[in-house]
Design brief:
Structural class: mainly alpha
Number of helices: 10
Oligomer: single chain
Number of domains: 2
Strand content: under 5%
Largest sheet: 2 strands, antiparallel
Strand order of the largest sheet: 1-2
Helix content: 55-70%
């Protein structure tokens, strides 16, 4: 290759690299509007240049001519935060699901969180982390009894079955059995 050909090659490759540089620059401008999977966004924390650029709250993405909208991330429920900040865990949620007659520990977390938000420390004083059906107060057990749809007439019937005379004690005992997941006699 002679000097003239090398010079022409270098000019061509220089023009090509300049054109590629413009394409790369243009793609950098478009990149933030692309829909990026959450796993890839999480990697941004590991890359210093990506960590400084905050992802948009909502973005419009062009895909084959159709516009698609991404939703902003949904914040964590205040109820769940209240539940976990109170120190409760999954085992507590199982007992509380029976207390609220929810059927689901997740829903019990939401209901308990709501009760904590509304009552402050009052609910936490009634049910401590680690309480079981057999360690809760009589008042809490009676509340579980009523929350599960039982009434005074049911307590009188249970008193006869269990050969008890104190209706208040029967309601507390029945509430504890409900919290423990034990079916009451029909």
């Amino acid at each position: 290759m002679n000097d003239e050909q090398m010079s022409a090659n270098s000019e061509t490759s220089g023009a090509a690299s300049t054109a590629m540089g413009r394409i790369r620059s243009a793609s950098r401008v478009v990149a933030p509007a692309l829909l990026v999977p959450p796993a890839v966004l999480a990697l941004g924390a590991l890359l210093p240049q990506a960590a400084s650029a905050a992802p948009p709250a909502a973005a419009v993405v062009q895909h084959h001519g159709a516009a698609a909208f991404t939703e902003p991330k949904v914040p964590v429920d205040e109820e769940l935060l209240a539940y976990f900040n109170a120190g409760y865990d999954y085992d507590d949620a199982v007992v509380l699901a029976r207390y609220w007659n929810d059927g689901s520990p997740y829903q019990a977390k939401l209901d308990t969180g709501e009760a904590l938000i509304k009552s402050g420390d009052k609910f936490k004083a009634e049910f401590q982390h680690g309480d079981t059906a057999w360690t809760v107060s009589d008042d809490f057990a009676r509340a579980a009894y009523f929350n599960n749809g039982y009434d005074y007439a049911d307590a009188r019937r249970l008193a006869k079955v269990w050969h008890q005379t104190d209706i208040s004690t029967v309601k507390a005992t029945a509430g504890r059995k409900i919290l423990a997941g034990i079916k009451l006699p029909a």
